[in-house]
Amino acid sequence: MTNATRADGSPERSVSPLVDDGSRADGVSSPVLLDGAPPVRPVFDHVRAEAAIRELLIAVGEDVDRDGLRETPARVARAFAEQFSGLYVDPDQVLETVFAENHSEMVLIRDIPMYSTCEHHLVPFFGHAHVGYIPGRAGQVTGLSKLARVVEGYSKRPQVQERLTTQIADALVRKLQPAGVIVVIEAEHLCMAMRGIRKPGAITTTSAVRGLFQSQASTRAEAMSLITGR
């Protein structure tokens, strides 16, 4: 964190990644720190979100003052602050720490749980991400938990699955400079299951391949075999 001073010489509070937890009466609220990365957007506006949710309930014909709904706008605003917390961090920052292990073989994590929100209908899509990479010439690796944190950082925002897959892959390329990257996401979309075509259980699979996984069919096949278990 960086310490700074205001124009009047008084100390300025250090800037950290923030989401609004709704705990202060003025709605600007005490921040929740996320992964030590700098914020990339302003803090979540809890008061504005709560007011908007209240208006939405009124628009659909509900009585927002009845017992079951009286606290709903505040609850939903807090839930949105968590669901969209990835907007307030730079997921790339978690990949800053690397280790020189002189490792040249594939590193792959299967079945990372993934929850995101469809930006078209604001309903969830969820499933699993499989993330793998081959270290570059320096043989540098990152902590295994960091891969899961990158998935989480890009998932917790309004998204489409195709972009989510690409963002994760490109983050690994930028920060690890690997010889290859593969990302596969399998997810069920509630916008397909509970509305529209209404096909619950349908799974959408997307992939992004870079480097050796793109240029060498055998390397890509090896990764897919590890992912599918076949």
H-E string: EEHHEEEEHEHEHEHH
CATH architecture of the largest domain: 2-Layer Sandwich
- In the CATH hierarchy, what is the superfamily of the largest domain? GTP cyclohydrolase I, C-terminal domain/NADPH-dependent 7-cyano-7-deazaguanine reductase, N-terminal domain
Query: Which stretches are poorly predicted, pLDDT < 50 over at least 5 residues?
Result: 1-36
Question: Could you explain the architecture of this structure?
Answer:
- By secondary structure, this protein is an alpha+beta fold.
- It folds into two domains: 46-83, no CATH class; 91-228, 2-Layer Sandwich (GTP Cyclohydrolase I, domain 2).
- Helices cover 32% and strands 23% of the residues.
- The strands form three sheets. The protein has a five-stranded mixed beta sheet with strand order 7-4-5-8-9. The chain has a two-stranded antiparallel ribbon with strand order 1-2. The protein has a two-stranded antiparallel sheet with strand order 3-6.
- A hairpin with a 5-residue loop joins β4 (107-118) and β5 (124-134).
- α1 crosses α2 and α3 packs across α4 (161-176).
- The chain is elongated and about 60 Å long.
- Mean pLDDT is 86; it is low at 1-36.
Question: Quick summary of this structure?
Answer:
This protein is an alpha+beta fold. It is built from 7 helices and 9 strands.
Labels describing this entry:
GTP Cyclohydrolase I, domain 2, elongated, 2 domains, zinc ion binding, two-stranded antiparallel ribbon, alpha+beta
